[in-house]
Amino acid sequence: MEDRPVKEIFTDVLGKPFGIVLFQLLEATQFTIYLSLIAFLGGGLIALAVTAARVSPLKPLNRAFAAYTWLFQSAPLLMLLFLFGLGVPRLFDIQVDPWYAAGIALTLYTSAYLAEVWRGALTAIPAGQHEGGKALGLTFVQIMVLIILPQAVRLAIAPTVGFMVQIIKGTSLAYIIGFHDLMAIGKRWANASVPGTQPFIIYPIMAMIYFSLCFPLSVWSRRLEKRLGSTSSKGRPTAAA
Amino acid sequence: MADLRFFEIYRNHEYLWLLFNGALVSAALTVGGGLFGFLFAVLIAAVRHHRVPVLAHVATVYVELIRNTPLIVQMFFVAFGLPLLLGYQWPFWAHALLALTLNFSAYFAEILRAGLASIGSGQTEAADALGLPRWLCFLKITFPQAAAAMYPSLNSQFIFLFLTTGVISEISVTDLTWAGLFIDSRSFRSFEVFFTLTVIYVLMSLTFKTALAMLHDRLFKWRTVR
């Protein structure tokens, strides 16, 4: 009920169909943001565990999680969405809320990429640092926490911020499994035969909304990269989608 | 409950044929988009590298716009927006190819820009001193070096972009994802179908990776012979 005056302001300023459309698009954008945050936080937590496993001296653990990252980096995001949104429900004959399906698919996708970014940052630290730690008689955990991590975090921050752009863009695919976000609302309006909501008007508006979500992050990540020093190009996935 | 029936689904030869055909369409559109996108990206990167007035700024805005919006929005704009706006309608695969070309070009252009920037200005100065025209210097000196340096990035970017091309099925292009959705709607075996698709995508990206590695060896032979 509270957003009613806001909606009226939109319709007053921009006219009947267009004001409502823009209001609904902006309102749906919040779900795009929520889903991005879920994916980023959930994916970040899993990625922490995966990264820890991948740099640990235990060989089998390392191999298992290398396979995990490889798998979820090679599988298209769209396929993960289909598997969790359509495949798993059909397989087990259960109902899965699009929130869960989209959240899980994006979280797995994010975790694989972030784990790779973070591992890249860790391996970018010269071996001499490890050796120096060993020479001082520190344990593996001590070397990691006291020497390697503080240096690696610097390298990892910029690509991590850059990757958030990719997640935000990735959420645009979730409408395919029935998630109601900016993309779903926009597509519905573009298909509606209301004057002023033609595809060539709606899609540029949607592009502008996504752009205003992503561009500040892109700029920020580039600035961080300049300030903190960039990672080598290996182990750093490039943003796409 | 959880019973998997891969065999039963794919006893249907029509489905196998659809998957095969879809994989070919996906590969063809990706390679086409990659090639045209690369050519366009070279143009963009050249304009930005030489700071051509006005055009360089337009190119920057273009690259940022494409890189910060989802492919699917670009795809829908190209497929449904442009035809209404300009009053023409190509077959959908042509719209898909255009959208992929535009999308790929922005990512490639960004890599090329960084690659060109990494070539020291001493190289250009030396070419100037030898009296080489600017364009010849770009073609013969700057570009080959930048290309060699940027090949791995372009390579992995291409693989990544290939994995995102599934969205072209949304505009009724009969690509691999479309084939999967079609089989799913007929057989009602979603898990098996999308699992198969995932495997095919992974295998295809491995194939691309191998092909690109082989291409690397051929293109940059001069780098290893010193």
From TrEMBL, chain B:
All residue ranges annotated as the ABC transmembrane type-1 domain in the record: 19-212
Subcellular location: Cell inner membrane; Cell membrane
Database matches in PROSITE patterns: ABC_TM1
Superkingdom, natural source: Bacteria
Keyword Transmembrane assigned: yes
InterPro entries tied to this protein: AA_ABC_transptr_permease_3TM, ArtM/GltK/GlnP/TcyL/YhdX-like, MetI-like, MetI-like_sf
Pfam family, one: BPD_transp_1
Membrane topology: Multi-pass membrane protein
Main location: membrane
SUPFAM superfamilies tied to this protein: MetI-like
Keyword terms, alphabetized: Cell membrane, Membrane, Transmembrane, Transmembrane helix, Transport
Residue intervals passing through the bilayer: 15-47, 68-86, 92-109, 158-181, 193-215
Assigned protein family: Belongs to the binding-protein-dependent transport system permease family. HisMQ subfamily.
The protein, known as: Amino acid ABC transporter permease
Native organism taxonomy: Bacteria, Pseudomonadati, Pseudomonadota, Alphaproteobacteria, Hyphomicrobiales
